[in-house]
Design goal:
about 625 residues; alpha/beta; Signal recognition particle alu RNA binding heterodimer, srp9/1; Rossmann fold; Helicase, Ruva Protein, domain 3; 4 domains; 6-stranded mixed sheet; 14 strands; binds adenosine-5'-diphosphate; binds magnesium ion; binds zinc ion
Length: about 625
């Protein structure tokens, strides 16, 4: 305990010097305290004479503040209240204090920024070094003597506050589009935060937690910010993964810190992103549970129970894996409201595009509706990214406004990655041409298949060549014939290689195709009941062990059935492969013609492709239906 006394003394000493050297000394001297292992006590001592950031802002508004000295480097301010000119109060600042500074300016409060690194510091440093050196030596002595090094770990939770606070998010519901139902539900939360009396007056209990469920990029974070923005309350955010640390108990202490800060700033909104990182079912996974995660989760549950609904704190959590969450999180009184935030439909995509087009120069000839039609499956984040890519391309091409050309290129880029340069003429370029035309030709000649949009030999991302099919608008349900058609056209690439070059010459280029095909066929058998095994569901969609599922009960069928599944999968695939091969063999003339054109031009658009097929193909007008 003697160490503690010394530390407090030194702290006072260094508080008087606002110089770089002083700061150094303070941080050095803090270390033995860590080793002695009771940082909490010291903390309390220092905080007795202090204000929070929120209180400071309030006091400024009321005109109770006479003078403020800001030290942005150290994140503290010395506040002189009216009538207490010689007893300054320490206030912890945030990373950005624009709001405070604006208020101070507004109220004409005398404030000065004390820079920690002024020129005097250099001289001061020398002088200070004289007495720091013995201190350092002393400290080393302490270090060596300390046998209980593990207590260092105790400080992790406290020393790093990992959550962020935004006093004003500036996001409004208008900035979020395409999720109308979710917005409607959340409008109520805004009212809870703004006028809780309306609910408490009639005896309603205000819900504490809302869980936003949806795939990444659909605007969950944005929605949470919009709620805070609409209600005009501070926004605290932390990611679930930031709770999880190596040391047991750190996450729990972060949860406590977060709630403590939130209570000081109520009414406010706490946003926990990726809550599945802490909120997974307890006791799941290989080898039982994870102590640290479970403690963190328990702490979170305790904190949520600990405050009454009427304190004005609302917790919003986001996840894309609601299925792995612990049931205790979802029961009433915790995250009892669940709001689905799904990928937008056509109208939603159009609305999102409108939001993001607001601050961009777009050629009037570009129809946002057409873009929305071209992008089924895109999330809000994809669409924002798409328009941004288009804007970058426009700037690079030195154009005045974004045209449809940039949009098209941007869509391709968002879907398939960066464009590379085409191969020079070679045997492999020719082989890739056959492979791609194989996909496109089989797809075109099959009934029940989406039309070809374009075929290209210009590499993108991982792919050396690409065949694009126009997706059907919002295919909610896919038929067995469509699935088989898809498998057949994907196999068309490898089939073309074999038909043209013979079995020994086929390449690794089809690896990705084969994986896709195998997945599709397997799902047809085990999930959709589309094989002779009958309408059975044999596998769950999600089986990842590490996401909180037990791996023991993964397969629910016997080995006999497993063998049958494999046989069915193989049959679907070999059947489709035969179909693809025979289509290509029968249309060899069209194939050769298209490959010549593609090698020469590097890209063939869908319309031209279909025209050539119609001219040359033997079975063009009577499309092939997939057998079996
Ligand atoms: P999530 O948290 O669901 O993964 P975000 O909220 O972080 O997604 O979205 C990322 C970005 O994508 C947002 O900042 C915004 O620019 C854009 N975005 C996503 N969804 C929407 C939407 N519904 N409306 C407008 N913009 C959106
Ligand atoms: Mg997010
Ligand atoms: Zn392929």
């Amino acid at each position: 305990m003697t160490v503690l006394g010394k530390k407090a003394l030194n702290k006072q000493l260094s508080a008087k010097r606002v110089s770089w050297a002083g700061a150094l000394a303070a941080s050095l001297i803090l270390m033995p305290g860590i080793l002695a292992g009771n940082p909490v006590l010291a903390q309390q001592k220092a905080e007795r004479n202090s204000l929070t950031y929120g209180e400071l802002i309030k006091k400024t508004e009321k005109g109770e503040v006479a003078k403020v000295e800001l030290d942005e480097a150290e994140h503290v301010a010395k506040v002189y209240l009216v009538g207490q000119k010689d007893t300054p109060i320490q206030v912890k600042l945030l990373e950005q204090n624009t709001e405070l500074i604006n208020r101070l300016k507004e109220k004409n409060v005398d404030f000065a920024e004390v820079s920690s690194a002024n020129s005097r510091a250099a001289v001061g440093l020398l002088i200070n070094l004289m007495w720091i050196l013995p201190l350092v030596a002393l400290m080393l002595l302490f270090l060596r003597r300390s046998t209980n090094a593990s207590s260092q770990a105790m400080n992790f939770g406290k020393s790093r506050a990992r959550f962020q606070m935004e006093a004003k998010t500036g996001v409004k519901f208008d900035d979020v589009a395409g999720v109308e139902e979710a917005k409607e539900e959340l409008q109520e939360v805004v009212t809870f935060l703004k006028q809780p009396e309306r609910f408490t007056a009639v005896g309603a209990r205000i819900p504490k937690g809302v869980l936003l469920i949806g795939p990444p990029g659909t605007g969950k974070t944005l929605l949470a910010k919009a709620i805070a923005g609409e209600a005009g309350v501070p926004f605290f955010s932390i990611s679930g993964s930031e709770f999880v640390e190596m040391f047991v108990g750190v996450g729990a202490s972060r949860v406590r810190d977060l709630f403590k800060k939130a209570k000081e700033n109520a009414p406010c909104l706490i946003f926990i992103d990726e809550i599945d990182a802490v909120g997974r079912q307890r006791g799941a996974g290989i080898g039982g549970g994870n102590d640290e995660r479970e403690q963190t989760l328990n702490q979170l549950l305790t904190e949520m129970d600990g405050f009454e609904g009427n304190t004005g704190i609302i917790i919003i959590a986001a996840t894309n894996r609601p299925d792995v969450l612990d049931a205790a999180l979802l029961r009433p009184g915790r995250f009892d409201r669940q709001v689905i935030v799904d990928a937008p439909d056509l109208k939603g995509r159009l609305d999102i595009l409108k939001v993001h087009a607001r601050n961009k120069k777009i050629d009037p000839a570009v129809s946002l509706d057409a873009i929305a039609r071209r992008t089924p499956g895109f999330t809000g984040a994809d669409l924002a990214n798409l328009l941004n890519e288009a804007a970058i391309l426009t700037a690079r091409r030195r154009k005045e406004a974004i045209t449809i050309l940039e949009i098209d290129d941007a869509v391709d880029r968002v879907v398939a990655g960066m464009e590379g340069t085409a191969l020079v003429d070679s045997k492999s370029k020719r082989l890739i041409a056959y492979h791609e035309v194989g996909h496109a030709l089989v797809g075109t000649l099959l009934k029940d298949h989406d039309p070809v949009q374009k075929v290209t030999l210009i590499p993108r991302g991982q792919a050396l060549g690409l065949t694009w099919f126009t997706p059907n608008e919002e295919q909610g349900l896919i038929s067995r014939a469509q699935l088989k058609g898809r498998i057949t056209s994907i196999l068309g690439g490898r089939a073309a290689e074999e038909v043209v070059f013979g079995k020994p010459e086929v390449t690794t280029g089809a690896g990705d195709d084969l994986q896709k095909v195998t997945n599709l066929a397997r799902q047809m058998v085990t999930r959709f009941g589309m094989s002779t095994l009958g309408p059975l569901s044999l596998e769950n969609q999600s089986g990842e062990v590490f996401l909180g599922r037990d791996w023991m009960n993964k397969s629910e069928y016997s080995e006999e059935i497993a063998a049958k599944i494999d046989a069915q999968v193989r049959e679907i695939i070999s059947n489709s492969y035969q179909t693809a091969k025979s289509i290509l063999e029968q249309n060899r003339i069209a194939l050769e013609h298209l490959v010549d054109l593609l090698s020469d031009q590097e890209t063939i658009e869908g319309e031209l492709f279909r025209k050539i097929v119609a001219e040359h193909a033997q079975v063009a007008d009577e499309k092939i239906a997939v057998s079996h």
